[in-house]
Fold these 2 entries.
Entry 1:
Amino acid sequence: MLSKAEQTEIETHIEHARTRSSGVIEALRVVQKHRGWISDEAVREVAEFLGMTSDEVDSVATLYNRIFRKPVGKHVIHVCDSISCWVMGSDSVKEKLARKLAVSAGETSADGMFTLLPVDCLGACHKAPVMLVDGELYEKLSDERIEEILNEIRAKE
Ligand code: FES
């Protein structure tokens, strides 16, 4: 069952939604914020809370790439995998991140700090190549800039 805090937060977010089910992404975001990812159990709980089926909630959770259906690291890196970033060198960005973190796309580093996920166009093509780290956009990436960003994040830990 969703915690009282999760329920209250979801109700606040979906207060003005046309139907309860139209608030499913917000509900998943709230639960993910509390638990780190969305397990099968969480899907069932959200479904029950919103009066939906688990399959309906799961189809949204699986489609939306900012909802994690597997455990992720403390920091999630979404690296853009679309054409403008590719033209501007995203292959090098992905290789650098994979080498520095010793992971392949979709994996979490051994220390649990970073999960590396490819993602479609982030809508910042004019700043390519780009990535999001925990939702924050980093643009015009270079090998040196990636090194700096990872070091900055590690230094804050
Ligand atoms: S192609 Fe990377 S932001 Fe659009």
Note: The mean pLDDT is 95.
Entry 2:
Amino acid sequence: MKILVVGGGGREHALVWRLKQSPSEPEVICAPGNAGIAREVPCFDVAATDLESLAELARKQKVDLTVVGPEAPLCAGIVDLFQARGLKIFGPSKAAALLEGDKAFAKEIMSRHSIPTAGHRTFSELNAALIWARETVDYPLVVKAAGLAAGKGVVICRNPEEAEEAIRSMMEDQAFGSAGQRIVIEDFLVGEEASIIALTDGKTILVMESSQDHKRAFDGDEGPNTGGMGAYSPAPVVTEKLQSQIEREVLVPIVHALKHEGRPFSGVLYAGLMMTQKGPRVLEFNVRFGDPECEALMMRLRGDLAQALALCAEGRLDEADLSWSEEPAVTVVVAQEGYPGAVGSGRPIWGLDEVEESDDLRIFHAATRRQGSDWIASGGRVLAVTALGTDLAGARDKAYAAIDRLRFPGSFCRRDIGHRALGR
Ligand SMILES: Nc1ncnc2c1ncn2[C@@H]1O[C@H](COP(=O)(O)OP(=O)(O)O)[C@@H](O)[C@H]1O
Ligand SMILES: [Mg+2]
């Protein structure tokens, strides 16, 4: 089997690495990939959003299965296009990907099917949103751009002034382009977050092990929201009881709801959840693996991932067989200073080749390129250093020990990944 992985971040590096190790021994290629991925498999210089060229690449390379990492091509309809061309692809259709692509739609379908989530209102008019923000007394509240905003379109507002600023930046100044034409304003939930990621072909739901992301840029969960600064799996906040409650109250009903509404879902279904005193509440759905949760999960995954994703794409997920290492995994993201804002370019990373990688320690590349024999940072999040350990502290120490061997001036990472689980 020949597999094309679409994307070029740490998530895709982890997917490529794990897919390659599948007992069915698939041949793996990637587009566009990055310098770290290119060390493992052939990479093709086609952007993840250039759907036509990707289909052409899959045809020319005689690809048997395409696996899509990021949300943008899914929301743009890559699955529909490939299927129309008779190319097998793992992921949701454009209609089903709306679950991530439009937070207003996600809230509505959850309301229609009584799936637990924060109370909300949707606004498409600036003045109506401003009036509501001024008159409500329930602060803090959360203002969200409805469309895709690369993890930067959510603002937690402590008072009406902050809410007005957030609303104006989205609806008036179009800080997120058309993604902020409509906004969702929702109640602020208190609790600990976790990610539950499942594979589904619309009939079978194969729930993976739990994980937890670290959204804020700095230690102690300070600073702006990012795409994610680190992750670990499993997340002890998700007890067995909660896990089955989430399956029953969230995953099964949303898969059913999407089918019922003519948008059958196939692919990765990701529920971002807040564990509140009243039980789990959905913060959002994603329609692909989280990054960096994916890196931690891939480190622990056992069994034949290539076969499982192919079976899922064929509607035969019930035949798939995956299992998990008992050992916890930790991922620490190394980013360039300035991230999640603008970052410099061309900074060298020294020492990468001196770190000895193993099945217990992988340096997944998120944004690197090569210049001669040098490794150069080429984006905000640069590396996702991932380790497996006999316990969480051991995994964390292994990841940080690897990071400490790198010489990467102008970079930073959080030093407290895993603090919630370790503080229990
Ligand atoms: N209702 C809420 N109450 C409290 N925190 C929230 C709420 N909604 C979102 N957040 C916080 O904002 C982060 C980003 O929100 P999310 O809905 O996941 O959007 P995205 O990942 O697209 O930026 C969440 O991980 C969570 O930390
Ligand atoms: Mg999120």
Note: The chain has four domains: 2-93, 125-181, 192-324, 329-422.
